[in-house]
Amino acid sequence: MLKVESISKDYREFKLREISFDVREGEHFIILGPSGSGKTVLLEIIAGIISPDRGRILLRGEDITGLPPEKRNFSYIPQNYALFPHMTVFDNIAFGLKLRKIPRKEVARKVREVAESLGIDHLLHRKPRTLSGGEQQRVAIARALVVKPELLLMDEPFANLDVQTKSKLIREMKRWRKEFGFTAIHVTHSFEEALSLGDRVGIMLRGRLVQVGDVRDVFSKPKSEEVARFLGFENIIEGVANGRILKVGDLRIELPREVWGKVRVGIRPEDITIFMEGVKTSARNVFKARVEGIEDLGALVKLTLNLGGIILRAFITRSSLIELGIREGEEVYASFKASAIHVFP
User: Is 33 annotated as a binding residue?
Assistant: First the structure.
């Protein structure tokens, strides 16, 4: 449906370099990256707000690179929602329909239908300043969907919401997608949004799209250490592999497949299980470790573990920390399955 070809742009402090990807009909495509990686600039280039220095954008095979935003039939939801403060919710939602010269009765019908679907039909007489963040977001989404856009562009759509409102809107976004059948490009730094909503994801780091693929594949099989570290592989270790065994100092770690020679592997902290004593487990990799650090992260606690000179980090729940009675300096057992190990190419 949409094809982005070799887009480059120097814009203020941002530099985009040779960005290429495609978006399929009916897909929810996530652009995932940290703040400052150029995600919003890329989205605004696709929207037609900013012109690229090089490259082109094709919609159904037609070059739309020079087409103004109003001719693209895309709906763009910026991070601040950009609702008109002097207009009611009804008039905000109706704005795009009125620009298209839709008859008044048809405008009223379409606005009420989309407002009912998004659960805001009781707010149509209100002004944006009287709404909560979640309600404002629903209004912005309703305004975007009511015109039946070719493509929905969303810039950090849930960034300004509290955790509960965000979780609710993510669940409802799945329902709205089924109901309205839209195609979306969704910019975010949130792993939760990517995993919950995305079909495919493009990882954007320092102005480059460094990996594109199915969301689950990218998260489980990052193609570089840079991508892996961004996606939460805090434990990256180097050793010498002899078939299914990786030798790291005095440790012998079972690998998910045969590998030979010097390699580097990654293990997520959440894939390491902690026991206070040796137990029978399906995990082949079980090692005695000393707890060298305990970091409180809220619901989770990060443990820094020393396995014979090899430092690993593991996540456990706060309740598990209390139940197990883990303290700094104590010995524990750390286990992880061979299948949890990612071998870097």
Answer: yes
pTM: 0.88
* 302 marked as part of a ligand binding site: no
Q: CATH number, domain at 284?
A: 2.40.50.100
**Residue 130's domain is classified under what CATH number?**
3.40.50.300
Do residues 273 and 283 make contact, with C-beta atoms less than 8 angstroms apart?
yes
| 39 assigned ligand-binding residue | yes
95 and 203 assigned to the same domain: yes
Angstrom distance (rounded) from CA 205 to CA 207: 6
Determine the structural domain holding residue 293 and report its residue range.
263-343
Query: Tokens representing 336?
Result: 């992880």
Same domain, 117 and 211: yes
Confirm if 222 and 240 have CB atoms less than 8 A apart. no
Q: Tens digits of per-residue pLDDT, 201-230? A: 999 999 999 999 999 999 999 999 999 999
Is position 243 annotated in a ligand binding site?
A: no
* Strands in 223-299 per DSSP E: 235-248, 251-267, 273-275, 285-296
224, 318: one domain:
no
Element (H, E) at 330: none
Same domain, 195 and 150: yes
Task: Tell me: is residue 40 an annotated ligand-binding position.
Answer: yes
Say yes or no: 178 and 287 in one domain.
no
197 located within any domain? yes
Q: Of 205, 229, 253, which one is at a domain's C-terminal end?
A: 229
Residue 243, in any domain of the structure: no
- The answer to whether the annotation marks 37 as part of a ligand binding site is yes
pLDDT digits (tens, 9 = 90+) for 128-168: 999 999 999 999 999 999 999 999 999 999 988 888 889 99
pLDDT of residue 282 exceeding 70, the answer is no
Maximum distance among all Cα pairs of the chain, rounded to whole angstroms? 77
Percent above pLDDT 90 for the chain: 87
